[in-house]
Amino acid sequence: MKVHGKDTEITVDGDAITTATNSSQLDREADEHDITCYGVDDYEYGGGLRKGAFTMSGVYADGATGPGAILRPLIGMVVPIVRKPEGTGTGRPQESFSALIKKYTETNPVAGYITWQCDTTRSGAITDTTQS
Amino acid sequence: MKLIDVWNEMAARLATIPELRVYARPVGKIDIPAHGAAAIIPYPQAVDFDLTYGRGSDELDQAVVVAIGNPESERTATRLAAFIDGGGGTSIKEVLEPTGYTSCDRVVVERAEFDVYTMAGTPVMVAIFYCKIIGDGVTA
User: A45 to chain B nearest CA, in Å?
Assistant: First the structure.
């Protein structure tokens, strides 16, 4: 069944940032090691340490619960992030991980809403669970 | 956002403009005051749901139509100019844009266009103010 993205939920360091967010992307990668040895005609590779980036962005909102108030103080810190890519519900997935809040950007166009973007680097493993 | 509440708040602000008769609903018959104008809040052009996750934000495209009078009258031209000014107490943009709405987060008057409508067989100069409105998606 296809799943719509609008139900995605995100908390950063315990603070809900869902209603100010309209896009998020979680990358899951692994290092690649060339283990090719003599006697073969094709490269062979092995997997190494895992890593990834998590980015999120949205429409800026003011106040203590807005993205600016939540994310600006976290620059340079490693904090817990919880993402529910299919929203809240029994049986739906949940991703929990820690991430370094690397960059926070606000963009103020004259002819539109203020937008924001936050880039993070995952630190440690992603814990994938199923909501009960 | 509740559309009715947005209409009512916009109408209340428009009513502060002198000699402007305000219709807060898209009604069928408009009476333009002899020495004034009529502002009508018509049906919206569009609603965009889900600007953010979790029903956080919706966006409304809502116009305000100001009907002034005889397109060839100097009084009409003077009155129209006052409505599209950037300020001065009769400016539609100046009245609608300040923050403080409770029905929505923000109303921005993005542009105005002009046309001649026929009302009861009579040509009437109108200014159409196109507004972009953002507010909460979930209505309390």
Answer: 39
- Residue A8, chain B, CB below 8 Å: the answer is yes
Q: How far apart are CA B65 and CA A82, in angstroms?
A: 47
Chain A nearest C-alpha distance from B82 (Å): 23
Q: What is the pTM of this model?
A: 0.90
In tens, the pLDDT along A23-43 reads: 999 999 999 999 999 999 999
Task: Report the alpha-carbon distance of residue A111 to residue A108 in Å, rounded.
Answer: 9
Nearest in space to B139 (alpha carbons), one of B56, B47, B48: B56
- Interface predicted TM-score (ipTM): 0.89
Q: Does A113 touch chain B (CB under 8 A)?
A: yes
Q: Are B114 and B128 in contact (CB under 8 A)?
A: yes
Give the number of other Cβ atoms within 10 Å of residue A103's Cβ: 13
Distance from the Cα of residue B136 to its chain's centroid: 20
The predicted pLDDT at position B140 comes to: 59
CB B82 within 8 A of CB B88: yes
CA distance A63 to B97: 20
Chain A residues closer than 8 Å to B52 by CB: 18-22, 58-59
